[in-house]
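TICKET: design request
STATUS: open
ATTACHED STRUCTURE:
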């Protein structure tokens, strides 16, 4: 791990294997976070309350994905980047939104929200708007990553004034949410392409990079990072019970940093896992498929009146990953489907 993080903005800061392994861990956590059988307490066939570890997961697992591009690519904007990002992220975003809308109307039998609401939701990429129109909110990640990558390019292409302005916008949004009795998800309904979510994580990404370049990577540092992450998790549990808004916001800011730094410390160990690397390389496809697969399996469990238990939750979790990986492997091995669903510039 000593050679994984390098100084300077022109070099690859982390190996592809280590990056894929980290993505592998994160996608496992994301799939777990969407598994209501494991993350909810159930009363018969009805979920009644989410467990603490669901809230814990949502303080860092998705946000760590946003940090990765800042670790291995801190170059200024180059010609064609915006097209490359659009093809890689916005094109899959469009077809997964269309697929979710079809499932919502024709399979789940929910009323169609109307073309205006649908187009508005897709344009804005808001979790709330997407959930209300297509029945799923997970696609928000794709426009958010698109906007964040552009912010990153603009940041590293300009001088101090522009950089301060961009960071300042992100910090102002945090203060608005903290003192304005408004959530980030609500703010996201007013700006397109999930740019609010991008600005939300932007200061977190920069601070994580700054810390990663300055900490040592040794056994002692690994232990200290792990202890720090566990201690923050304990404090988060306390903050959840006392309903302290300020402390909750602090944890939403620092938990992704602590989690990602810990993953960096152990990425040499993680990169020895062929399974994690494979899952990481297919993480985008698994992310796009797994929610739909899980909901299909959940309908199966309810249809046959199986009592939601941890055992069933683990079975469905493994099956969700298995089918998502099989779909990714099939599409990657089929040139036609690969070019149609995931074209490359």
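STATUS: resolved
RESOLUTION: sequence designed for all positions
ATTACHED SEQUENCE:
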């Amino acid at each position: 791990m000593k050679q994984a993080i390098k100084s300077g903005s022109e070099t690859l800061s982390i190996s592809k294997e280590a990056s894929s392994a980290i993505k592998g861990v994160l996608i496992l956590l994301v799939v777990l976070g969407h598994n209501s059988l494991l993350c909810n307490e159930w009363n018969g066939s009805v979920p009644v309350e989410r467990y603490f570890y669901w809230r814990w997961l949502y303080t860092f697992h998705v946000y760590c994905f946003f940090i990765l591009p800042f670790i291995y690519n801190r170059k200024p904007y180059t010609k064609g980047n915006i097209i490359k990002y659009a093809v890689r992220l916005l094109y899959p975003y469009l077809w997964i939104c269309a697929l979710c809308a079809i499932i919502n109307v024709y399979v789940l039998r929910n009323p169609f929200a109307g073309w205006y609401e649908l187009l508005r939701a897709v344009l804005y990429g808001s979790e709330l708007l997407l959930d209300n129109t297509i029945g799923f909110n997970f696609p928000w990640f794709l426009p958010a990553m698109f906007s964040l990558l552009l912010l990153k390019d603009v940041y590293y292409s300009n001088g101090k004034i522009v950089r301060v302005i961009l960071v300042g916008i992100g910090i102002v949004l945090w203060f608005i949410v903290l003192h304005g009795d408004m959530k980030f998800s609500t703010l996201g309904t007013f700006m397109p392409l999930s740019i609010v979510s991008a600005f939300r994580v932007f200061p977190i990404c920069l601070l994580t990079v700054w810390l990663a370049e300055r900490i040592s990577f040794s056994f002692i540092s690994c232990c200290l990072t792990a202890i720090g992450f566990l201690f923050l998790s304990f404090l988060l549990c306390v903050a959840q019970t006392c309903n302290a808004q300020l402390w909750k916001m602090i944890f939403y800011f620092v938990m992704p940093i602590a989690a990602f730094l810990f993953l960096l410390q152990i990425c040499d160990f993680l990169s020895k896992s062929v399974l994690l690397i494979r899952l990481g390389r297919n993480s985008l496809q698994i992310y796009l498929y797994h929610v739909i697969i899980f909901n299909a399996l959940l309908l199966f469990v309810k249809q046959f009146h199986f009592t939601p238990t941890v055992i069933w939750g683990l079975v469905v979790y493994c099956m969700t990953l298995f089918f998502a990986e099989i779909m990714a492997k099939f599409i990657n091995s089929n040139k036609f489907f690969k070019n149609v669903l995931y074209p490359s510039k």
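CLOSING REMARK: The beta strands are 40-43, 46-50. The chain is about 75% helix and 5% strand.
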